[in-house]
Amino acid sequence: MNLTLKIWRQKNAQDAGKIVDYSLTGVSPDMSFLEMLDVLNQQLIDKGEEPIAFDHDCREGICGTCSLYINGRAHGPDTKITACQLHMRSFKDGDTIYIEPWRAKAFPVIKDLIVDRTSFDRIQQAGGFISVNTSGNTQDANAIPIKKENADKAFDAATCIGCGACVASCKNSSAMLFVSAKVSQFALLPQGQVEATDRVLNMVKQMDEEGFGNCTNTGACEVECPKGISLENIARMNREYLKASLKA
User: Fold this and answer.
1) CA distance 26 to 45
2) How far apart are CA 85 and CA 87, in angstroms?
3) Three-state SS for 87?
4) Relative orientation angle of helices 176-187 and 196-210, to the nearest 10 degrees
5) What's the rounded Cα separation, in Å, for the pair 128 and 64?
6) What is the DSSP letter of 6?
7) Which of 89, 172, 203, 216 is 20 to 30 A away from residue 135, measured at CA?
8) What is the pLDDT of residues 22-44, one digit of tens each?
9) Would the CA dihedral through 27, 32, 36, 39 be positive or negative?
10) Which residues pair with 70 in a beta bridge?
11) Is residue 68 within 8 Å of 164, Cβ to Cβ?
């Protein structure tokens, strides 16, 4: 496959940045998208040019670091995958591919395709934890009965990998889906009830302070989420927030 790549290049957070064109030949359809970028970077290094900075880690679809906006979609044209799970067979010979970083005030560009997502970490630190001692105090799984429906929903919410695709796909750059998933995974379980009131208030407050926008109610976040996190979690978080506000 022969491709034209239009890639966002930005030296640092202060640089204006611009789209730079690259031609790449001999791309195998079996390559992953990140492997294709590796090939391009090797060619740039061989020519003495600066390689393209992009984020990645596990390359198994579970770490959430490969944050790429590809042809106007978070993680590219396929659904429920991360960029490392996207393969070049999803494109055609001669295609032009636009590759950009996430665009959000709360995700400032560090360099090229890498953005600073520590805002998510600060939201987690504001309330994404429990005080129940589970270390060295293992209990039988049936000691605290939990409805299977609640357990399943908590597990589904916990599959959020914090990649930021929900923010990137939202026209308001809202982090509601991420925050609601982190609230829900505890709100549905008895171990999470100790901090329930403070958790939702503190996490939503931190989300607002980080500069994320309001929910648009369009559902784009769920569509682009690689783990299929449900909008139901946002409704649950809103209910938790209302209850917490009345208690406070």
Assistant:
1) 18
2) 6
3) strand
4) 170
5) 18
6) E
7) 203
8) 999 999 999 999 999 999 999 99
9) negative
10) 73, 99
11) no
Confidence check: pLDDT of 124 > 90: yes
What 116-125 contacts at long range (C-beta under 8 Å, 24+ apart), as own/partner pairs, is 117/67, 117/162, 117/164, 119/175, 119/210, 119/211, 119/212, 120/162, 120/164, 120/175, 120/178, 122/206, 122/210, 123/175, 123/178, 123/179, 123/182, 123/203, 123/206, 123/207, 123/210, 124/162, 124/182, 124/203
DSSP 194: T
Q: Give the pLDDT confidence of 49-106 residue by residue, as tens digits.
A: 999 999 999 999 999 999 999 999 999 999 999 999 999 999 999 999 999 999 999 9
Amino acid at site 142: N
pLDDT at 134: 67
Say if residue 237's pLDDT is above 80: yes
**Mean pLDDT to the nearest integer, 150-172:** 96
As given in the structure block, the two tokens for residue 233 are 């979690």
Q: What is the CATH number of domain 117-247?
A: 1.10.1060.10
- CATH number for the region 3-110 comes to 3.10.20.30
H and E: helices and strands count for the chain? 8, 7
pLDDT for residue 144 is more than 90: no
| Annotated domain spans of the chain | 3-110, 117-247
Burial of 174 (0-12, 13-18, 19+ CB in 10 A): buried
Question: Same topology for domains 3-110 and 117-247, yes or no?
Answer: no
